[in-house]
Amino acid sequence: MEEQLGLIDLVINASITVQLVMAILMGASFLSWYMIVQRFIYLRTAREEMYDFEERFWSGIDLAQLYREGNEKAADGNAILGMESIFRAGFKEFSRLAQQSEMDSEAILEGSRRSMGVALMREEERLERHLPFLASVGSTSPYIGLFGTVWGIMHSFRGLANATQATLATVAPGISEALIATAMGLFAAIPAVLAYNRYSAKVEVFSNRYDTFVDEFSSILSRQAYALRAREKRGE
């Protein structure tokens, strides 16, 4: 209990500059932890929805029926994200272009791939949200804490120059409060760096799965486009 009170006293008695540094680091730490938890929940939900959609997609269901199910979900107010969003973008553009008789199979497929590419970029932006902030906290917090430490030590030695008797007890409080800034910088940086590395690896996995899905779905659409135009040429 005494150690905790002593630590609080050091923070309270620190210079204004060091206190400002501590406040910045504490705010960065709170924000980074909020974003760490928020990203954890979002990525876990995105993974579950991706697996559910993949299972539904490869179950042999009619693509038009799958698209209509998505419309019903959207009508109920449910957000459609991830792989299903990419599918809907591609299928919607495919259906629109397929109705235009002057469009050949290659043009239909190219238009569908472009729509899926745009949807893919949006999904990657959602996955990477907050990661730049975590990277910034992880890279800058130790230096901000070090600045507070250097400033606090300089303040202590300036006070020591005016003291009549220089002892360890004279400079120890000032050095201690300065070192707290370094500790707080590390406290803010370490979780942010670990979370950033972890989530960046997960985002890479998602991106690869999405890219693979775009290629596989494009192959399906390509076969359907060629079959559709072939039937039209035969007059069916």
TrEMBL record:
Part of the Tol-Pal system, which plays a role in outer membrane invagination during cell division and is important for maintaining outer membrane integrity. One of its GO terms (cellular component) is plasma membrane. The lineage of its organism: Bacteria, Pseudomonadati, Pseudomonadota, Gammaproteobacteria, Cellvibrionales. It is a multi-pass membrane protein. Pfam families: MotA_ExbB. It comes from Pseudohalioglobus lutimaris. Keywords: Cell cycle, Cell division, Cell inner membrane, Cell membrane, Membrane, Transmembrane, Transmembrane helix. Belongs to the ExbB/TolQ family. HAMAP family: TolQ (MF_02202). Its main location: membrane. This is Tol-Pal system protein TolQ. Residues 83-211 form the MotA/TolQ/ExbB proton channel domain. It comes from the Bacteria. The chain crosses the membrane at residues 12-37, 131-154, 174-196. The Tol-Pal system is composed of five core proteins: the inner membrane proteins TolA, TolQ and TolR, the periplasmic protein TolB and the outer membrane protein Pal. They form a network linking the inner and outer membranes and the peptidoglycan layer. It is found in: Cell inner membrane; Cell membrane.
